[in-house]
Amino acid sequence: MGSNIDSLTVIEQISEIANNQLAPGYFRKYTAAGDAETAMRERIDRDDRELLVCYSGETITEVDDPKVLSQTDKLLGFGLFGTYTAEEMDEYMSVPLEEVFSHEDFPVGHFRNLTLRAEAQGGSITSPMISRVIEGLYELGQDVWVMLLRNRQGRDTTDYVEDFGAERVEEYDDYLDDWNCAICESDCECTFVFYRMEVT
């Protein structure tokens, strides 16, 4: 991709943010879609999945038109959430579903991803983005929500969801065998934490 962020499309920026903040080749390696555009178009097409984007002016929008993906407005980050069946969740997970969650909980609301550029992390946009995801999950109407978060000492990612009442279910030091961490400089010190939350 080009080095000038002003010329990158929204979909190119989503891919760039994921590669820089999650792992190089994130969509190719860690999603069934295989690339960012396929993954995002699938979300836009489904009524039970959502794509949030946060623009540089800290405006947060749910994307419901695929034409947005080809625009060049600067993004600070993106978020993904939706309804998942047990089969869909099992396909996404790197450990057996029953090792972490109960089949009886499904379908669930799944807070799949919230990824911000490095300069925006921990800033004023983090809480509004999380709030918008939570608001969207409420609108989907599921009684149970689940999420998988990457946790690293010195970051407060898991604190946010625990503040909202999520319960830590399982934590893994080596959840992904071929994980190429975009944050840790040498050996990855991150753990991967599964959360569950009952909505009342």
Overview of this protein structure:
It is a single chain. This protein is α+β, with helices and mostly antiparallel strands and 200 residues long. The protein has one domain: Gcn5-related N-acetyltransferase (GNAT) (Aminopeptidase, 3-Layer(aba) Sandwich). The protein is built from six helices and seven strands. Strands 2-1-3-4-5-7-6 form a seven-stranded mixed β-sheet, sandwiched between helices. Strand 4, helix 5 and strand 5 form a beta-alpha-beta unit. The termini are far apart. The model has no long low-confidence stretch (mean pLDDT 89).
Rg on CA atoms, Å = 16 Å
Class computed from helices, strands and strand pairing: alpha+beta
Order of helices and strands: HHHEEEHEHEHEE
List the strand order in the largest sheet.
2-1-3-4-5-7-6
Overall pLDDT confidence: 89
Secondary structure tally: strands: 7
CATH H-level superfamily title: Gcn5-related N-acetyltransferase (GNAT)
Biggest sheet record: 7 strands, mixed
Strand content: 25-35%
The total number of structural domains is 1
CATH architecture label: 3-Layer(aba) Sandwich
Question: For this structure, what is the CATH class?
Answer: Alpha Beta
Number of helices: 6
Tell me the overall shape: globular
> What portion of residues is helical?
25-40%
Low-confidence stretches: none
Q: Give the end-to-end Cα distance, rounded to a whole number of Å.
A: 45 Å
